[in-house]
């Protein structure tokens, strides 16, 4: 796939995936279109060699894999479906001061300031009782700009451009309407009806998020950049999804996109949970075969990397400061915040070199903290040789992030040749 088609598809995927539930649904549809067969965790699996399969958990994590004859040296790709955002509390409605506003809770390490004065919509999962009294679930996406978190005017805050702080409880509630007769459950049923659900009775529970309705786009004099919400980490999800859909059935590959990375991965559908291990043990039910596969395979953990910021260059180690559109970033940390080793690095770099694809290094400054991702978690849980890589990004965890238009396609080409 050429870079233009690759990036156009990326923009569409980003726009169609405002929550992990929507991202997982869209990836599942892609796998079905590519000939993968869907598995159900609650029933016995009867796998056939030469087939391709996928399975989901919690509707927010997905694993896709090939099942070639006798092959055990898998290239595994790991990413995560979640991104920092504001999530609605169970009873969110507050009517005061002439407006209806919604109480929200920050999810993950959210960069707060950019969320003010943006056109926000609502998406996520709703559980409800249908007319037969059965519990059902459905995804909604209002798509329309429904709410805004208004800034306080500079006239009312003498410290606005000096030392303003944001209180997550009192300052971040979005304004929804001035209508006094607003009823939250009726609003949710209306959203369900727009999604084709006409038999919704009692609303039982919700997992709803705010998101910016501005579309993903190219940016820059020569379309140098891709600007979008949720680049961390739907960018890697897209690369992994396309990679496994682009190979033949006899090539051993697995792609795992997990939820809840931004809050530590400790959940049933997170990388610290059992989803990947459970799946691999069902595929390789013989314990000796399972261990042989683990020993022969490599996990490439794909997450975004901090590109050196042109206005804050002192935040990077000068010899390990990746730049946008200069290649995939190999992430290293001696304290195992990243799981890269000389073995996993050398294999990846040899493939990139053969393809004339550039690579870069990121090592955090020794006097600063270092983030982490699913790489060390997966390496610890399964004993897989692991490499942490990423695509250089500005404004990570902002409502709108910035990446290069060359880098994701470069990673895609490397993965296709990684064996």
TrEMBL record:
GO MF annotations for this entry? aminopeptidase activity; metallopeptidase activity; zinc ion binding
- This entry's Enzyme Commission designation comes to 3.4.11.-
SUPFAM superfamilies per record: Aminopeptidase/glucanase lid domain (SSF101821), Zn-dependent exopeptidases (SSF53187)
Q: Name one GO cellular component term.
A: cytoplasm
A Pfam family the protein falls into: Peptidase_M18
Keywords annotated in UniProt? Aminopeptidase, Hydrolase, Metal-binding, Metalloprotease, Protease, Zinc
Which family does this protein fall into?
A: Belongs to the peptidase M18 family.
Q: What is this protein called?
A: M18 family aminopeptidase
